[in-house]
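Job type: complex structure
Entries:
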Amino acid sequence: MKFAPSLQQLIDALRVLPGVGPKSAQRMAFTLLEDNHGASQLAQSIKQAQQTIQSCQTCQNYTQSAQCDICTDQTRSANGQICVVAQPQDVLSIEQTGHYHGRYFVLKGLLSPIDGIGPEELGLDKLQSQLQHGINELILATSPSVEGEATAFYLSEMAKQYNITVTRLAQGLPAGGELSALDSRTLGHAFSGRKQL
Amino acid sequence: MKFAPSLQQLIDALRVLPGVGPKSAQRMAFTLLEDNHGASQLAQSIKQAQQTIQSCQTCQNYTQSAQCDICTDQTRSANGQICVVAQPQDVLSIEQTGHYHGRYFVLKGLLSPIDGIGPEELGLDKLQSQLQHGINELILATSPSVEGEATAFYLSEMAKQYNITVTRLAQGLPAGGELSALDSRTLGHAFSGRKQL
């Protein structure tokens, strides 16, 4: 049995969403057909977001104006810190910790020469020009993956030219983690990074 | 930290999809912002489906023309069977079994007086008028829930006026089911519906 063409097209289009397989896409399509208002709202919100959301000129995070709220906040730039993250979502995660009150720089990717992603694609020239003005700490908050580490290394080399302190997020035991359930790399990092009490 | 207004609006709009919570909606919104083509495609597909998909005049299933493919297929109406299902998705499920070659009638709901869903809301008058012309079996394929059983009872009473055979899907052991894992109601139905070999 075949669905009506535009229903099938909707099912296919829903597959663009992360974590949505053929069955979920079908279920979503039927829900949208039943909920006319919600469906219109969704279609319109997608269009509006596409038209209004842009990259912040300073930090590359998503914003609706030329500069994002964090970059325009004077108190944020007062302490001269920039925290480098891979994706816009990571800004939210760090903000939720309440431990950081400086500015961010969102790479929207990680260095990966094999995929053709070099320093230009990540806007590192933009970051470099910012490092020359009143920055005293560059916090590297990329994930501890191969690409994340490579990007962190590149950035630390870049920052050294300007005598800027470069720090990297600590690696070790996750909160509430059972020692027996940890992989040996994490436990190894926790061991070598142990602190005196 | 707050998202840009139209990004937040997109996240909220995505919550209309079934099984999408706040976290998934965020992830989906970011994916859509990164995939401009896919996002446009999705917005357009929603609009197009809303504009072109309608209810089949005969069976109420979703279709792009006045009558759906199954209702226009002469071989489907030849055996004089109508299978009544609650939702359009159920048509697909039954088609996939390959056990049925008659027509359908899609209620798009079940009788539920407490929610104000009566026979008119389900289009049962439309079904009743069809029962008068060459139908010899009405197959009730609503689910074995309270509303499903109530709807099946109502339909069977209706069909009796026209001397039509009314059947209900068998209840019993699911394929591959372990006896020990079954609830007692299902096992009870399987017992009382046992067949001689």
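Summary: The two ends of chain A are 68 Å apart (CA to CA). The domain at 75-168 of chain A is CATH 3.40.1360.10 (Dna Topoisomerase Vi A Subunit; Chain: A, domain 2).
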